[in-house]
Amino acid sequence: MLGLGFVLAICTVVPVLSGCGTGILSPIGTGQAPGPGASSAPPRTYTVTSPVTTLAIYGGAGTITVTGGWESATTVTERAYYSDPKGLPATSHAVNGGTLSLSYSCPAQLTCGVSYDVEVPRGVTVQVSDREGAIILASLAGTVVAHTIAGAITATGLASPTVTLTSAAGPITAAFTAVPTSVTASTNAGAITLAVPGSAVYLVHAHTYVGSTAVTVPQSATSGSVITASSDLGNVKVKPS
Known about the structure:
Blueprint (H helix, E strand, L loop, with lengths): L43 E5 L5 E5 L5 E6 L4 E9 L7 E7 L2 E7 L6 E10 L3 E8 L2 E4 L5 E7 L2 E6 L3 E8 L2 E5 L5 E6 L4 E5 L6 E8 L2 E3 L10 E8 L2 E5 L1
Parallel strand pairs: 2-6, 2-8, 3-7, 3-9, 8-10, 9-11, 10-12, 11-13, 12-14, 13-15, 14-18, 15-19, 16-18, 17-19
Antiparallel strand pairs: 1-4, 4-7, 5-6
């Protein structure tokens, strides 16, 4: 699992996280249907009260949802599933230098994963990596970097100046409420749809090997708002929001 080495367990190093003192977090369902023989339990939610400027999630299997809000604290809900009750997923989270890092590890078993539902202050930088599962982003205004190997990426209500979305296999959809400075969206297999304010002019690079390309926003080679959208297999659309 990516990044597990530097993430320490809750409560032992991060007393600002509420809900400490209960031991390892309970296993819970994914938001996706667990595989045959998988077990689940109610979700576990906790609040990070120390300032968070960057959220980094290192996922494996499960949906990751990040929503921007107006609260100063960050709220995390973890949902895990597993096939072997003797080897539950072990979640880890820590705040270091303003970065909240979330990850988990699984013992060897047929089915194991954790999904995350996180609400952060709108301006927080968001960095999300997932192996299998959808990434859902909403109402964010900070820099966004999201990557999944197998899954869809959906983003709505973005006011972020810089956004990078990549999927090895899955569609990408992003809608902006403010004019971005830089948007990069790429997938090996899947459609890409980007909706940006039509009041601005953009420098657009859109390409697909198999599929169609449609760009219906105003364009200029000298624009400071750059959009790059590329799919190996799938339609690419850049349109007004």
